[in-house]
Structures are given as structure tokens and as C-alpha cells.
Amino acid sequence: MAWKWYDSQITKIEQMTSTTRRFWVEKKPEWDFTFQAGQFITLDLPIHEKRLKRWRSYSLAGSPTDTGDLELCIVKLEGGLASEYLFEEASVGTPIKFKGPAGAFTLSKKTATKLVFICTGTGIAPFRSMLREMAATEWNQPVHLIFGTRFEEGILYKKEMEALEKDFPNFKYSIALSRETTPYSQQGYVHQIYEQAYEQVHQGIHFYICGWSNMVDEAVKKLTEDMGYSKEQVHYELYG
């Protein structure tokens, strides 16, 4: 399928952590641009002569129900041409060309009694999109978000997730910090949290996993091979 390209611009930039920023990309009303929670857009950045080496895909962190511009959550990677351009050269008003939306990492149409979101770092972006849509549509299904990072400084959207947990009794929020201890987090990795919470296999649970490939690969193996969940219950999106 040939995706339509949009000529847009960066409208806002907000620093989240020392290495992570939120970027907003203009969405003009006349475009009638719509997407499903969990999908991504692909940016064409001026970082290489070859077209395919200029393209970078980022999950949409905003909800389909949001009326404003498109939000992206991006981490700066050492030696990464795209993130170095966005962090060091791009600014508010910088032209951005993008295409999309695309991606099948969306909520399954199959009946599930509970959803478990497992993510690390900016892998939270598609889940924030899903959760914001759920909050806007009064979603009643139990949801458990398990977020992992190294240090407290790297917890993304923390206040928003804590507020969501207070407002919606069916939403549970867990944090795993591998290099630091806090009163509200668990020492270690995301794997320890879901292994303990969902040790007993239940056919109604669906797991959604997003983050760096090593974490995703390990989680898929643990859930399907070690814990006994079916492949149909495990959905994932890789970042690198």
C-alpha cells in the first residue's frame, strides 16, 4: 500500500529526561488524519542521501481521541543519525515530512478479560496512546501497565500514569528500576513483575510488549515457553 506523505512541521518540544524528549508534529484539520492507538508514523529526515536511510518510524504517543497535533516520544541514541538530528538541529518550526499511520500493534479484537502492557523506556508510547483512548471512552476492562527503566529519572509519563491509577480502579501501574530503589518501584526488571503476578496461566489474559528487542525477545520466550501462555495471547513491537 502506498502511504500518503504529509508536509508538516514541529510545533512543540518538551524535555522529559536528560535523554528523552516529546515532539509534537503539526496535524492540519483538512488532512482528516486518523489512526488507531498503537500505530506509528514514519519521518523522512535530512540525514542521508538514500531515501530508505532517511526514514525513521516512531509510535504515536497521543490518543486517536486527541484533537491536537501528533505527539512522539523519542530517546537520543549515541551515534543515532535520526535522534541526533532531532535533538541537535531540529527546533520548533522545523519542516517535517511524514507518512502513515501504519502498524498492526493495536488492541486485539479477540475477547480478553485482562490486558497486560509490558514496556521499557520509550516503548511506553503506544501504551500511553491506548490508555488515553481508554480513559476517554470509559474503558472498563482491567489493564496492568508494567514499565521498566534503569533509574528514577527515566520514568516516563509517571504523574499521568499515577493519576490514571487513582481515577480508574481497573488500572494498575507497576515500575521496575534495575539500578535504583524507590518506595514505589520494584528493584530489578519487568520480567520479575509479570512472572510473579501471572504465574498461573489464564486464557483470558493478553500481553502486549514494546521496547528494545532484547527485552521483547526475553519476555516472549518467558511467557510462551516458560510460563505456558499461547502465542495468540502475546503481541509485541520491537524497537531496534
Written account of the structure:
36% of the residues are buried. The chain has 2 domains: 5-102, Elongation Factor Tu (Ef-tu), domain 3, CATH 2.40.30; 114-239, 3-Layer(aba) Sandwich (Rossmann fold), CATH 3.40.50. The strands form 2 sheets. The chain has a 6-stranded antiparallel β-sheet, with helices on one face. It has a 6-stranded parallel β-sheet with strand order 10-9-8-7-11-12, sandwiched between helices. It contains 5 helices and 12 strands. The radius of gyration is 18 Å and the shape is globular. It is an alpha/beta fold and 240 residues long. The longest helix has 14 residues, at 213-226. 22% of the residues lie in helices and 32% in strands.
List keywords for this structure.
alpha/beta; Elongation Factor Tu (Ef-tu), domain 3; about 20% helix; Rossmann fold; about 240 residues; 6-stranded antiparallel beta sheet
What is the approximate shape?
A: globular
| Corresponding CATH architecture of the largest domain | 3-Layer(aba) Sandwich
Low-confidence stretches: none
Number of strands: 12
Strand order of the largest sheet: 4-3-6-1-2-5
Number of helices in the DSSP assignment: 5
CATH superfamily membership of the largest domain, which one? Nucleotide-binding domain of ferredoxin-NADP reductase (FNR) module
Q: Look up the CATH topology of the largest domain.
A: Rossmann fold
Return the CATH class of the largest domain. Alpha Beta
